[in-house]
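chain below, 453 aa
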Amino acid sequence: MINEDLILETINMIKLYNLDIRTVTLALSLRDCIDSDVNVVCQNIYNKITKYAKNLVEYANEFENDYSIPIVNKRIAVTPISLIGEACKNPDYVKIAKILDKAAKDVGVNFIGGFSALVEKGCTKGDNLLIESIPEALAQTERVCASVNVASSKAGINMDAVLKMADIIKKSAELTKDKDGIGAAKLVVFCNTPGDNPFMAGAFCGIGEPECALNVGVSGPGVVRAAVESLDKNADLSTLANKIKQIAYKITTTGELVGRKLAKKLGIPFGVIDLSLAPTPAVGDSVAGIFQAMGLEHAGAHGTTAALAMLNDAVKKGGIMASSHVGGLSGAFIPVSEDAGMIEAASKGYLSFDKLEAMTSVCSVGLDMIAIPGNTPADTIAGIISDEMAIGMINKKTTAVRIIPVVGKNIGEEVFYGGLLGKAPIMNVNTLSSSGFVKRGGRIPAPIHSLNN
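prediction:
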């Protein structure tokens, strides 16, 4: 039987409340591209990407038209490039980044992730070379995204890598200062990074992943807000959580349908659905807006962390019932520059840096797309990263830092990136020195609960 109410509800979710498939991401192993000659590696990489991804954008566009469901981004995630390049006798990671960029451009995807290294316990020569090359690689490419995992609940926090990444972030912003430091916007530092994340800038194809798979990231903050607003203003929080679960189920079902059909047409396995509520700068497509619908005056009010915890949990509970394979990050993103409500809250001073950090203890990722003064010392950035890594390590969750020290700008000014990256106010950071702590180096040991075998 055709249910007209469900049909109208789905149409409204898409047309009125910005429901979309935020990304379809082709995860591709490049392990068979390894060679001792970097030129051969580059050719192997280009050939493999263009072979597997040649129809990705075309087929995704066809499904978008067939089902009238927007598929906003088409992306690729590859094996961490530090592993692919370190066998070369003449390693040149910038050259590899450029061939990744060319392949991404030629197949028409928005971004390609995987210019990455996993160094939570220490660095190999290849890891060090890749990390050193990140600023130049991001400055000389358009679509390449980089990530480095510096901590985990099993290994602890590699503080040498944390300090190094703070310097790399500064250099990435400096080399792209003519574009408000956009190089740093394409770079993220992780704790407990997942190998099946379809979202940028942290997507890569993990070591345990298959040769190729299609991972899907759904979205729909506007849909969740509308669902919350449909309830009686006096509905209790249990009722509110159940309503969010119900709508998360419907959102995830949409992503599962598109993901499986697109994977079948591409002739590759379906990977995972990432349930993360990914906002945009568009009005009405904001996670911060959900907090207001829940009853908070604005994001940043006392109670925001509790509201975010409930939202995250309800989204996961509802989404897990709609898919056999949920993965990636799965929760709610709180990027300052990519969420209209978060932008407003930060601009008006409702949302402090410290409050954002508290919210990351329960959100999907961490400190995301935050612009800070360009003269912020690398030691301070290292302190920020170490705090966020500690939250992830202790709580056995993924946390991340994507922070942009904007050269030449200070508190009270704004940066404009356009598109999904949006705009961001320059936020104040604590000026007390972290130098003596972060420069001790070594590794912060893993917590006692890591010994759970």
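The domain at 217-441 is CATH 3.20.70.20 (Anaerobic Ribonucleotide-triphosphate Reductase Large Chain). The mean pLDDT is 90.
thats it, cya
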